[in-house]
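Worked example 2:
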Amino acid sequence: MQIKLIEILENLAKEGQEIIKKYNKIPGGKNGPYNDLETPVRNSAHWIIIFSKIYKLNQEKKYLDSVYKLAEYIISKEARPYGYTFFHRNKKRKDKCNGLIGQAWTFEGLVKASEILQDKKYSKIALEVFNLHPFNEKYGLWNRVEIDGKIFSLDETFNHQLWFASSASLIEESKDEQINQKLNFFLDHVKNNLTILNNGLVFHKIKWIWRRNLIRSYFFNAIIKRTYQNFKTFLRDGKLTFKYSKITDFEKERIEKEVYRSIGYHCFNLYAFAILKNKFPKHKLWREQFFDKIISYIIKDEYFIDLENNEYGFPYNAPGFEIPFILFSFLKEKNEDLLKQSEKWLNIQFKKTYNIEKKWFDKNNLDPLTLTSRFYEITRLPDSFFNEIIIKI
């Protein structure tokens, strides 16, 4: 059976509307493999973008109404209880704002709501929350801010920082010189904060923060010192080494765990870079040799093989939704067959995770609500693609 992508979008939008009728929002999932209980804020923000796309394509007012309901929920006291950051998750020993990434996802939805509803109040709230976050000019990174306004440490995960910057770049009001200065400063410092393995894979953690925490956590004991030495060599050579001493099981497990997660997040990083590339096309970062290495990794057979059984890949970060926009943003001039490549990756994603009977992405994943919501990532493709891409299901 073959079906156009536009029909998939229409079916999904109908399912989403039924959920809104019942809850007046889109319920939260559990953040995929992390199993964190999430509030409806994240998924509702994603669905604002889904409904906005279908409204743009068919002009049916019911989808505009859905955008309005979700946007009003996100700016409500329930979603932003103390008037500071948005409430994203409720799990012991974890922040409720979900670091910078929770706020970044919210910004996307609010910006789109302002655009489609022609009401700037939503994007102004996004800008207000962005400005609550202290920016460290030494490192070009932001601190986390809890929902009660308490300022936490720098967010240690690279993709969180990257998505916070990319989502902030979408805010119309962020054309303000001071905001743009921060975003450019972040891009200027990417090279210092980004760790790339020899095959082009972006390492999940910010290298210098992870190193510091490894050492501090165990009060400089010999095992951790050796772990760091092995880690340094690993980052350089892209493989575990026996150079400094026989590597322990602890060291190997710690490093391999982060590499495994990094594979699942590689396209998630590139997708955010693509947003920034479209906003800051002349920045020197895109001409860096190392950046070509990052992009080249996604077209290697090695990448697809590494993704195959990675729980952070197709079941969660959904490369099939992300790669088409990445290709369109970075390889448009080099690859004339973007439609065919987009179709290829989307079909892989659908084959692995889409349930044709339920019209929902609930196959082979732990969090159908969240994975289905992440369909929003494909909406940044040109409108024409939705009538041209064929999904085989």
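The chain has one domain: 2-392. Strands lie at 2-4, 135-136, 141-145, 151-154, 390-392.
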